[in-house]
């Protein structure tokens, strides 16, 4: 539930443009994204654009804060995984709690990163080093 998307940038292609232009393979937009946010992103992220970058937390992408969760609540998360946080009771409750005055995000982040660091790395035939991270070789 703890998300590091409060800081950083992403390329438009493929994660963002798929969500904007071909979500179900029928030329549609992800219905879980705020239509106004989708329209704004479409002005920046054109189909097939491999170079343009966007902030993961617009206006706050260089600051380690909880603004990301406010955007997610408004359905303005950049990635599909951001929007998915609202689709399940436990994660939605966490998102809403981080917008309140009792936010635990700053305390939760460190332990979450330690836990993520314990995920086993796939090696040999179990994994691969991708030539382009967004695509399987």
UniProtKB/TrEMBL annotation:
GO molecular function: lactoperoxidase activity; metal ion binding
PANTHER family: PEROXIDASE, PTHR31517
Keyword Phosphoprotein on entry: no
Database matches in InterPro entries: Haem_peroxidase, Haem_peroxidase_sf, Peroxidase_pln
Record family assignment: Belongs to the peroxidase family.
Gene3D superfamilies assigned: 1.10.520.10, Peroxidase, domain 2
Superkingdom of the organism of origin: Eukaryota
Enzyme class label: oxidoreductase
PROSITE patterns per the UniProt record, alphabetical: PEROXIDASE_4
Keyword Iron assigned: yes
Cofactor: how bound: Binds 2 calcium ions per subunit. Binds 1 heme b (iron(II)-protoporphyrin IX) group per subunit.
Chain residues that bind Ca(2+): 6, 57, 65
Coiled-coil stretches: none
Residues covered by the Plant heme peroxidase family profile domain: 1-137
Cysteine disulfide links: 12-45
Reaction equation(s) it catalyzes: 2 a phenolic donor + H2O2 = 2 a phenolic radical donor + 2 H2O
E.C. no: 1.11.1.7
Cofactor(s) essential for the protein: Ca(2+); heme b
Listed name of the protein: peroxidase
């Amino acid at each position: 539930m703890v998300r590091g998307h409060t800081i950083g940038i992403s390329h438009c292609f493929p994660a963002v443009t798929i969500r904007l232009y071909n979500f179900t393979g029928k030329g549609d937009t992800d219905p879980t994204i705020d239509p106004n946010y989708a329209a704004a992103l479409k002005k920046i992220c054109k189909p097939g654009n491999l170079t343009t970058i966007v902030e993961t937390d617009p206006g706050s992408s260089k600051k380690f804060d909880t603004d990301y969760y406010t955007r997610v609540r408004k359905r303005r998360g950049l990635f599909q995984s951001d929007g998915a946080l609202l689709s399940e009771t436990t994660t939605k409750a966490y998102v809403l709690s981080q917008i309140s005055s009792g936010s635990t995000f700053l305390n939760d982040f460190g332990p979450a990163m330690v836990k993520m660091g314990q995920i086993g790395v796939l090696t040999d035939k179990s994994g691969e080093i991708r030539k382009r991270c967004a695509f399987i070789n």
